[in-house]
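Two entries, shown back to back:
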Amino acid sequence: MPESQPVVVPPARATVFLVATVEPGGEQTVRGVLEDVSALRRSVAFRSPGDELTCVVGIGSQAWDRLFSGPRPRDLHEFFELNGEKHRAPATPGDLLIHIRAERADLCFELARLFMDRLRGQVSVVDEVHAFKYFDERDLLGFVDGSENPEGRLAAEAVFVGDEDPEFRGGSYVTIQKYLHDLTAWNRLPTGEQEKAIGRTKADNVEFPDDLKPEDAHIALNTITDEDGTERKIVRENMAFGTVGEGEFGTFFIGYARTPDVTEHMLRNMFLGTRPGLHDRILDFSTAVTGCLFHVPTADFLDDLPPAP
């Protein structure tokens, strides 16, 4: 089995998300950096081995054919923009995703700096978010986020490509969206109404029974099952971010999955609804401002890239 990138890891206290587009003529430099991802991480991680510095790199659909010859990941495509009756999930540019996590923000910052020292002038950073763990894994809406992530073998089955695409076995797909929250409006809601919007209790993180869960609750619309009733899972590594002076408060959604179809199904439910007039109640307070999809190749792929086109 190929060695995967460190997708499934314990929640981190600090994260840097870098999203970039590759400039014309920058392909060779980007290939060189991709081959050095492991070495760059080690050069920072050795300073504090116990702080769990990890890095995952994803590659977008348009960039793939500019960087590599040979086959493409079967399910790699551009992010599908969604335009619902009331809310929109935009598709925004992104050729590269660099997802850095650690227990210390300075380690994340240093690794991001090393990447950009190599990439500056060859890529344009279109989004950079320095995010943080908020109390006990809560988002800025005050609710625990990511508690339904699968673990162990179930997590691996949920996020890593298998025999359905043997050339890319051990890889993954990652969908990202940056959401901005209207906390003033949200905090005007009584706690009970907030809980109905999410589908679980706020203080102790208990999911509502199905018969008490509103059909527009976030959890209800994000529960996806296959033909035999088995729930299909993704691994979320969402993080909070904000700039208090500008009044910007948000959640960086990042979902890893074996196929992007699972995450796309969730997003269709949220933005388009499961019937006319229905959408995720959270979207009345949270606005998606970015949207990208990437393939996450294996660590072995990065260490030994296919030839350039």
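entry 2 starts here
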Amino acid sequence: MSAQQAQDQVVEQEQSIHPVAGCAPGTPLTKAAAPIVDLGYAQYQGTVDTSTNITTFLGIRYAAAPIDELRFRAPQPPTNITRVQQATMQPNRCFQASSGTLPTNPLRPRAIEVDTGEDCLFLSILFPRDADRVPQRLLPTIVWIHGGGYLAESSSMYRGTDLIHESNRGVVAIVIQYGLGVFGFLPGQEVKKNGTLNAGLLDQDFALRWVNKYIFKFGGDPSKVTIWGESAGTGSVLQQVVANDGQRKPQLFREAITSSTFLPSQYKYNNRIPELLYSEVVDQTNCTAAADSVACLRTADVNALENANLNINAAGFFGTWVFIPVVDDEFIKQRPMLSLAQGKVNGEALLSVTNTFEGNDFVNQSTADTANAPRYALDLFPNFGPTEADCVGALYGGLSTHHFKLTLSKANQFLYVPHTTCSAPLAVTPGRANSPSHWEHITDVPYYFPSYEVDNGITFAIFNNTAFVNAFAQLFTSFAISLDPNVKIDPTTITPEWNKWDVRQVEMLFNIKLRAMIPL
């Protein structure tokens, strides 16, 4: 939907936001007088926080439950519901799992506990309230795609109020959920033939199409949508950027933001590795003897599938994830880095940021040494042969064990981004010359989402430097609003000029001299 089409429907929009009975038009809404939005297939009633004037809709169903015959298929529209749905509770999380044998998994499920299940295709929307209705002018919209290695996390971990505050009430915020693990990324030839590959990516695509159709009802501009994610959320963003060879119609977003990109080896759906994964799922669900193994998996007990999901992921190599996107020859026609290099992309602009020690938590520090480099490469890339392994040994053999570990932790050249990417952290006043930088994977997330929580309600510590925090966070919302991070929301912030990427300057550095994650 174009911005003009959305503006033409403002009258319809206002008619679909109803004050609760007993409240005269113009009466300020309270939590008891929340708006009701009519989506055609269902009506949803949200809540208003009168202390912040932010309206929240939690758990809006954007697709039918992917159960029974819809398991391992492309998402379908929701069924009609006649009664008003209360959008006041966090939705079910999609089934979760953990990565390989990491002793501490940075992408494990977090503190905000909600039920898990297959019926999890929901999104949550927050927008700043104008008087008693949605914003009178359509606002740019940010769609956050959560990370978690394609097997964990949920929308409940991220509060869109943070983005609204950082944008000075200038955006609508959406957080989506999508199928994870075996439920969203079951690979293999049989799935290609009798189901749908990359169902989790298609869930994301379906959610973006929902946004394109309905976001005007919540005050969002469908022509100014930004997709943003971290880790596997960023991997998802890049999959959407290259989807359909960059020829997606209609275009579903204008900008893309990538934070801490997770882009592991992406095999073709019928490669040896995906086929082995599929066979393992079939074996663990007692579907080996079935004439149609996909049909058997559709009727398998969900607990058996979830157990297989947990077992197969946990048995993976240290710090790796096994159920990930594949090249399916339809939605994803080739590895994303090839499409990016060829300019086969959706959207108009990309903002990218990485941390210095992205790979620190994903490298087994007790076994990573130069003598083991060839073997390590074979474990990470099981399709490698002796020639490739020897090449790795030659590349890293001259490093001391300390520098080998440091190289893996900083650049994570083996696993986390095995394809070359261009990082673009921001430059600000450097600190002392003897202070090494030490931002790790995920440590930037609390700057976008200060309310972000980890296990047991513990939050990440952020810099005790308001000027730094404001400058950093507002870069991203500025980009979402104006296509340019240099157009400041707050003209007093210390943000320096962030130039467009150039082959002569492949990155800018934010706090290049840093110790203990404290800006100096």
